[in-house]
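Posting this for the archive.
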Amino acid sequence: MTGFRQDWGRTAKRIRVPMGFLAAAFYLWIARPSAASLLWSTALVGPGLLLRACASGYVKKNSELATAGPYAYTRNPLYLGSALLACGFALAAHSRRIALALAILFALLYWPTIRSEEAFLRSRFPEFDEYARRVPRLLPRLTAAPTGRTAGFSAALYWKHREYNAFLGACAVYAALLARLLLRA
């Protein structure tokens, strides 16, 4: 079973973006937003975007284990931000079917991806196991774990990782939902 999990973890990592586009098409087809659902959804989408933006400014992919900033609270702040976005957009769509579909997609695609990435980090960085003992996988700690690192947020890393695309994507989804709402009115 371990071989299957590893294979699925690699597959999930590769298909999560294309599946996201398919999910977006399904989402926009099923969504029945209301003014209230759009407004309330920003309470989750906004923090999700901010968390992803902040986390991207700490990641030096494959060269250094990120343990500072939001990584001192959760090992996967980017995925936690994505989960907040998914929950917020499920709320915006005003559809239980979408909420269920997004939860299933997250479980099938992101959970194996997280496990696969952690296996890679464990093999690449000897300090990962100690970090994993102090910092939870997804749901954050209430206080930052001591990291011993002083590096702060890097705007250059934010731009390098093109995290602004999450903001642009969220704006596009809100525009489509707003158009759908106005066309129904």
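The mean pLDDT is 88. The chain has one domain: 33-144+163-184.
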